[in-house]
Amino acid sequence: MKVYRIWALIERDMRKFFRSPALMMASMVFPLVQLIVLGYAFGGKIKGATIAFVDQDHSVESRRVREMLNGIEAGPQTFRVVDYDSLPRALDDLKAGFVRGVIQLPYDFSRRFYQHDRPRIAFSEDNTDQVMASALLERIQQMVDDLNSPAVTSRLDSQVQLNTVEVYPYIEYAKYLLAGSTAMAIFIVAMIGGGITFIDDKSRGLHEGYLLTPIHKTELVLGLIGAGAIKGLFAGMALTIIGGLLVGIPRLWDPVRLFYLTLVVLVASIAMISFMFLAMVRVDDPLVPRAIFGVLNTLLFFPSGAISPIEGFPRWLRWLSVVDPFTYTVHALRNLTIKSTGIEGIYRDVIILSCFAAVMIGCSIALFKRQL
Amino acid sequence: MNAIEVDHLVKKFNHLVAVDDITFNVLNGEIFGLLGPNGAGKTTLIRMMTTLTPPTSGTARIGGHDINTDADGVRYVLGVIPQAFTSDPELTARENMLIHAKLYGVPADKRSALIDELLDSVDLLKFRDTLVRTFSGGMRRRLEIARGLVHSPQILFLDEPTTGLDPVSRTNVWEMIRNLREKSELTILITTHYMDEADKLCDRIAIVDHGKLAALDTPDRLKDSISGTDVVEAEFGNAPPDWLDQLRGLAQAASVTQRDELVRISSHDGPATVAALMDLARSRKVTVRKVSVQSTTLDDVFLHYTGRELRDAAHGASSFDVSHLYR
């Protein structure tokens, strides 16, 4: 194997890559848009939802509930409360989507309260939107807990309390999503540089020119994957830094962390390019990589835990995430960007991605046809 | 000594025989032409010789290296200019040359001067830093020829080097090939379906049709091998039914054939045959609508050996085009 031939192919791709920023732009635009739009659209706290309040009791106690609702409206602003005098009308508006929930204080609320006969508040919610429903329920449950807590507590309370310690400061969803967007940028480079361009070069006859030289297929495969991996490294690091600045990742310029980020992005690039190369190694039709782009994107990105935790997936989807190189890329990058871990948080991912890349490269070399 | 020895090469694509037991030798320093219509099997043959396609059976030795057992040795002695453009349009002319020089392991201290010299020889030196995507077809073909020479090969293969080029570019490429021959010891193998190209450039020509070798000799000997040295073509009005038989008795006429209204007379002396033809037509009151006399061409040779004209074969070539099978 002659290394100078591998470098010759890498040099060819690098000259084209730096001459035209098209690939770099194409690989960055989509993940950045996704990071900004998805990052700030998802994962934010619910604010300003409309809640109908139907007070059928009109008592001092019902006034107290209304005041607590006013407190939520003024404080966390989870919802704003609109008074209704008719329960059926409130429920109609709930079904029509004008309000997100209906709080009803029945006629006997205060009487039961004073008789210690389990006074009830009814909460009807629109559970077609699970995120909204659980956020409203959590806030109203909190309000009811506050209503139930006694005004004066004993000095030695026997009730068990849960003290929660958050290890990290509040993480906005955009920061959580950054790792997935970086992986996506690498994937797009792999798709365009390793898939589409490879097949286009093949169909335009450029590969025939290389096959006529004494280059071995191992050198050819390593050269093409090497060139793609360097492009993936540039795109991945550029997105990590630009995206990190946009979403406010602290201590982004820490040299040790930058080194680990570079390591993870490089290994992930090699893994994804070699995966793409293997997928395309026997393909000749330029339409194929374009046609499977969306399918591969869905199959790799969503099961990786990039946008929601893997633990929430059904069993079959979890298995998919196990063999998905995105999973380890996202895990390692998330550890570095939002948890600020060192090598201890990424070494397993780096080893798995390296092994994955080695298998993909081996298979690519075995399947690559040196002749037309 | 032979630069190329082709020994019973066969290539089959399923049941289709693209190259059918072809054997020939090419001498050192010779310009050798493979003449045949599109789909005749020329490109398949050249792909086997350049190690791009494995033969079904048979072998070839290129510069003494066997294509089956020493493919790398073949690749080092060969410079190949494929039919399709293989230079990278997103790189400059110099960069294309440089990458190929590196792939062939041309020493770093020689690369720059060699590339400039080769670009100069194809008149592209002033465009060395221009992106290839801005080149015309002729410029690109010249670049491909220069690139094919970057590792100083012993043998150059040109697969349809002027296909798709305008007449001026074709003439330039011919001039380049002649210059290469004069200035170096290169053995050159050209495939073409242009008769004038084969006639003007090649020392020897092999006529290939339907994957088989139909004839092989120098252009002059091929032309001499068919009866008559001239061809008289004529069209007649109100000709009697036995008119062709009467024409066969003309002075110096060797053979007479007719296609549609055009009558072709192979003659050992074209002007004498025309004079006799005019006398005969006048005496038989036959109108001569058109008459021309020309020397025997390779098209006549192709017609003689394959039973059809090269241009007809080219038009009907699609049914024999097997390129889609291995593209």
3D structure, described in words:
The complex is a heterodimer of chains A (about 375) and B (about 325). Chain A is mostly helical and about 375 residues long. Chain A has two domains: about 5-40 and about 170-365, no CATH class; about 50-145, abc type-2 transporter like fold (3-Layer(aba) Sandwich). Chain A has 14 helices and four strands. A four-stranded mixed beta sheet of chain A has the order 2-1-3-4, with helices on both faces. In chain A, helix 3 (about 60-75) links the parallel strand 1 (about 50-55) and strand 2 (about 80-85). Chain A is elongated, with a radius of gyration of 28 Å. By secondary structure, chain B is of the alpha/beta class. In chain B, helix 3 (about 95-105) packs across helix 4 (about 110-120) and helix 5 runs parallel beside helix 6 (about 165-185). Classes of the chains: A mainly alpha (about 375), B alpha/beta (about 325). The interface of A and B includes residues 2, 11, 204 and 214 of A.
List the helices and strands and how they pair.
The complex is a heterodimer of chains A (372) and B (327).
Chain A: H1 3-19, H2 22-41, E1 49-55, H3 60-74, E2 79-84, H4 87-96, E3 101-105, H5 109-114, E4 122-125, H6 130-148, H7 173-203, H8 206-211, H9 217-247, H10 255-280, H11 287-301, H12 315-322, H13 325-337, H14 347-367
Parallel strand pairs in A: 1-2, 1-3
Antiparallel strand pairs in A: 3-4
Helix pairs in contact in A: 1-9, 2-7, 2-9, 7-9, 7-10, 7-11, 7-13, 9-10, 10-13, 10-14, 13-14
Chain B: E1 2-13, E2 16-27, E3 31-35, H1 42-49, E4 57-62, E5 65-66, H2 71-77, E6 78-81, H3 93-103, H4 108-121, H5 137-148, E7 155-159, H6 167-183, E8 187-192, H7 195-201, E9 204-209, E10 212-217, H8 219-224, E11 230-237, H9 243-247, E12 253-259, E13 262-267, H10 270-283, E14 287-295, H11 298-306, H12 310-315, H13 323-326
Parallel strand pairs in B: 3-8, 3-9, 6-7, 7-8
Antiparallel strand pairs in B: 1-2, 1-4, 4-5, 9-10, 11-13, 11-14, 12-13
Helix pairs in contact in B: 3-4, 5-6
